[in-house]
Amino acid sequence: MSLPHVVYAQSPQTTEHRIEEIVVTVQQQNQVITEVPVALSAFSNKELEKMNLTDFERIAALTPGFISQQQTDSSASFVIRGVEAAGTGAAAEPTISIFYNGVDSSRSRGAVKELYDIERVEVVKGPQGTLFGRGASTGAIAIHTRKADTQENSGFVESKLGNYNLYSLTGAYNLVVNDELGIRVAGSRRKRDGYVFNLGEPERKLNDDDMAAARFSMRWQPSDSIHLDFIYDHQNDKDYGVSTKSIIAASPGGDTSPFTHAGQNKQLKDQARRQNGYTLLVDWDINQDWRLSSISGHRQLWFDNAFDIDGTTYHAFAGIEYDRQKAISQELRLAYDSQSATITLGASYYRDEASSGFDFVINEQHLLGGFPNVLTPLPELPVAPGVSVPLNEANVSRSYTENKRHSQSVFANLNMDLNAHWILDAGLRYTWDRATLARSGDAFTLDGVGSFVLPNGFLGNSFGEMHSTDADFNMLSPRVALTYRLNEAVNLYAGMSIGKRAGYPDISIQNPTADSVSFSTKEIGNETLTSYEIGAKGQTSNLYFDLALYSYQYDDFQTVSLDITEGAANAGKAKAWGLEGLISAEFTDWLGGFVNYAYIDTEYVNFFDTLNGEPVDLSGNRFRLAPKNTFSVGLDASATLSGSWRWFANTQYAYRSDYFFNNDNLANERQDGFGLLDVRIGLEDDTRGYKIELFAENALDEQWVRDIGNAGKLFGTSTAIRGNPRFYGVRFRAEFF
């Protein structure tokens, strides 16, 4: 059975099941997963293909301590052990690093990628800044695509058909040019209709999917000691939009349930994202003890979107946004590997440039009319007996931000056998960051009616003036762990690590008078997460287990206020503790199964925020998107049917207890506990490489929401984003040997 952490191999001629060791590279060396003294989950190519795991929401369902909230292909949030990766501003650094073939791809708009033709996915929990570097203060996700090879020609093609007019086609082919050169091409195309009817534009449905991706890989191996991998990847996403439905105000003919028809105005533009990536990997075995590695990357991203902030067909509030990003990175590693010790020394450089714009469109007739409690707009505002001023229907606050960051670091890591039982792991990274931020604001109306209430907009008007500021942030990230080999099958470990999330400068625009402007700057300082963990891992031919107990303290954590006009700040202190466990086994030669469980207790120890100009004490509240209990269970059965054909059936059920969507822990912005069931059944021929499968995801059609609150929360009209309903269909696959 294919399960997290382990590879399950099956002979084409028999139904013999056994658990094989899986090799991971989270410590920048090849290690069997049971030897790594950190909690992690690894999914091999076979596992990803077997369960058709093409997105992180479904991977997270099978990973203790990990939650993914993927609203669209272009918008996602990752949460590891209660700490969210979502950025808190244009210049904010992530807390969870996403690495794509070793290249940092953590900026929020570029973090989500289609998982097709993947070699391995690793989810590493706890501070990982020493080994992964930027933004890994609470964890890291490493995606390794399948590279070209010079051994054999091979490939596959796969198609799916399903409800909501789903169709997809994915394929890859590896071509051996000669003994030194191999080329691999891969691509994926998927299209699915939306599943939410929109009262405001009934000819189109929300929550649709339209994705196209391609990848070109080339390996040059001029000698046995040197190989180079070049990878180019491209992905293009274009969706009509996400259903952000108000749970406070009902549209005419609608209601406030997240699970019925949405009521949103016609989209001003579709959501569109385009990204390109260029990666060069070089490995040189200098001799039997020394290896030099280089990872070079360049990434580009374009993103445009418009959304209905109030979540109704009333023209109250709307948003239009865009992002342009580009980044280059370079890392060098020199590793010494002997029988008793591995020493890795390295240095890295990272530079990114991002520009973003946001138009906040406010209908002053609704704003002053009392929306969402009063749904009738107020055309004029009385200012004196018998005197009124007209109110506009579209006051635009335009904000433009440019962000640049230069980051350099040096690091060292040691893995050493102290004796036959004890292993020491220790590492240290020092990082120098310089961040520059520039911002301007503009304000105007679209209907020609001047603004009486917001003459300089909601976010400030700089009258064409651009103001900039910069700041330096230095960070030291240490880690140490001891592993005890209890016997050949079981390892125990204990470790401590400190994660650092870099700070950033911020600018706010004020208008003391209608015709004047001033800028104020501040620095959002580094945040620190200090983590302690003990664990045990073990593996036999038919059993694998992984257990971890951890606690951490979170100091000076960065957050954006509930009141958008207050901006970002270092909010205070938080703490959490939890335990995670996974057990998987092969019960018989035809049946296997697994169960995993995670518990986390989170608390803001000291957290004061502002809403509508009033202080709000959030101390004692739980973290958002942090259910106390999560678990998943799965069973897999397969046996010979006739000749080389086998039947198979597998199922996974993933459950989350209740959790809040926002730090203020409001009862109406909370998700009750729920579970999702996936079922697959089919036939496959390993000898010929054929497979046909019937599948159902969320087979029980559970109703759940991805998020509640969003930008509408600022105006008292929180919106809900509905989760996926039941998806079902048929999958065909053919492999070429």
Write up this protein.
The chain has 737 residues and is mostly beta strands. It has four helices and 48 strands. It has a 22-stranded antiparallel barrel. The protein starts with 6 loop residues before the first strand and ends with a strand. The N terminus is likely disordered.
Describe the structure using short key phrases.
737 residues; mainly beta; 5-stranded mixed sheet; 4 helices; 48 strands
Q: Helix/strand/pairing class, anyone?
A: mainly beta
Number of strands: 48
Mean pLDDT over all positions? 89
Proportion of beta-strand residues = over 45%
Low-confidence region ranges: 1-17
Largest sheet descriptor: 22 strands, antiparallel, barrel
Terminus-to-terminus distance = 23 Å
- What would you report as the Rg, rounded to the nearest angstrom? 26 Å
Number of helices: 4
Fraction of helical residues: under 10%
Shape: globular
SSE topology:
Elements (H helix, E strand, L loop, with lengths): L6 E4 L6 E4 L2 E2 L6 E2 L7 E5 H6 L5 H6 L4 E7 L2 E6 L2 E2 L11 E5 L2 E2 L13 E8 L3 H4 L6 E7 L8 E9 L3 E11 L4 E12 L3 E2 L7 E2 L2 E15 L2 E14 L4 E3 L24 E15 L4 E19 L8 E21 L3 E22 L1 H6 L10 E5 L2 E4 L4 E23 L4 E24 L21 E19 L4 E12 L2 E7 L7 E7 L2 E13 L3 E13 L2 E3 L7 E3 L1 E15 L4 E21 L2 E4 L11 E14 L2 E12 L2 E2 L9 E2 L2 E12 L4 E8 L7 E5 L9 E4 L4 E10 L1
Short description:
The chain is an all-beta fold. Helix content is 3%, strand content 60%.
